[in-house]
Amino acid sequence: MDCLVINGGHRLRGTLRVSGAKNAALPIMAAALLADGPSTIEDVPDLHDIQSQIDLLKMLGAEVVRTGSTIRIEVKDTGNSHAPYDVVRKMRASICVLGPLLAKRGIARVSMPGGCAIGDRPVDLHLRGLEALGASIDLENGDIVAKAKRLHGGAIFLGGNFGSTVLGTANVMSAATLAEGTTVIESAACEPEIVDLANYLRAMGAKITGDGTPRITIEGVTSLRGASHRIIPDRIEAGTFMIAAAITNGELQIDNVRPDHLMAFIDKLRAIGVIAEESGTGVIVSSQRNLRAVSLTTQPYPGFPTDLQAQFMALLTTADGNSIITEKIFPDRFMHVAELSRLGARIHREGPTVIVEGPRQLIGAPVMASDLRASAALVLAGLAARDTTTVNRVYHIDRGYEKIELRLKAVGADIQRKDEKDID
Asked: Fewer CB within 10 Å: C terminus or N terminus of the chain?
């Protein structure tokens, strides 16, 4: 099993390009199952989760050809509609094939999904939405079994205890494109990844309005064609690299960024003293290390993203004063707290809130990654820490960041990938 070994204290300088968004690519790849004919999807990152989705699509009868960052998908065989446990357990976004399979083939059998251990993320809203479209839903041997001869439009409310469901919105919106009549999704997720999916579906011939707002309307059509589409930039990767510049007192030109997708995040960066200026198709980020404490609460888009909470916590360990972070999306998403404490951070948790005392000089130590974004936070902390930090179980980070050690090394980080067996 691989680990990342980081000798901290090096200021990052140079240029980094952000990859296409994993969280946009995965539901778009699933939606390609709806099409008659081939789809070409560009700027798809080379990640473990993407490969898992490719493997799943092949099982479901699609021919998938990857050339660099471009993927061509064409359904050749519709005989299998079962997404099995062995594949789905690796990645939660596999659930996104449920809606397309049901709408196109009339049946979908999808294992209950896996993914990061960051708290309870039930799929009941997905199922409730599909039932509102006329599907029958059963649970058999750990599989969700959905059936419908032809879906029909309906009014669907997708709000949950912690806000709207992004994957649930993707599933229901995809399924509704081939439903008879009009579907209205209330309390729909507003994330850019949903807008990107809607743009792809429209290119296929779908009739969708209101994406990016809490009310999405879909007029069903009888068929969809293959289409070409370029994935939006990954806003979470962009935010992670912006923090890398700030936490190392460096300066990075980060290209292929949509600042309008990161307004709440950039606002908090500037509030603590980080300089973030738009430049062409990207941003220039720098810091003089005189950072201030701040209070923040994670919220559904356009609020502060939960997927940047762990990384921002690492940055706040270097800020002067007591910062307060409240997690409103996944209240248990604090498994990185104990590992940051191993590096010398002073962090106190009370339920869904943590207090970060700073500034602290982080000191390198062996740490263990628990999930994708926690992995990124530990890498960032290692960049700022004195001496050597070893981040173990980095298969998590490979799910969401393409060749992160090579990209950071190119801008001045002392970081290398090793086999854990080679570490003393």
From this structure: C
Q: Is 116 marked active-site?
A: yes
Q: How far apart are CA 188 and CA 168, in angstroms?
A: 9
d(CA 178, CA 422): 53
| Span 99-109, pLDDT tens digits | 999 999 999 99
Q: Alpha helices, DSSP H only, in 119-230?
A: 124-132, 166-176, 192-203
Q: What is the pLDDT of residues 69-100, one digit of tens each?
A: 999 999 999 999 999 998 888 888 889 999 99
- pLDDT tens sequence across 103-157: 999 999 999 875 444 344 568 899 999 999 999 999 898 899 999 999 999 999 9
Average pLDDT, the chain: 94
Q: Architecture of 2-19+233-422 per CATH? A: Alpha-beta prism (3.65)
Intervals of CATH 3.65.10.10 along the chain = 2-19+233-422, 22-230
Burial 230-256 (b: 16+ CB within 10 A, else e): bbbbbbbbbbbbbbbbbbbbbbbbbbb
Burial of 333 (0-12, 13-18, 19+ CB in 10 A): buried
Gap between the Cα atoms of 22 and 45, Å rounded: 7
- Of the candidates 261, 262, 243, the one whose C-alpha atom is nearest the C-alpha of residue 252 is 243
Check: CATH 3.65.10.10 for 22-230? yes
Q: What is the pLDDT of residues 300-327, one digit of tens each?
A: 999 999 999 999 999 999 999 999 999 9
Cis status, amide bond into 302, omega within 30 of 0: yes
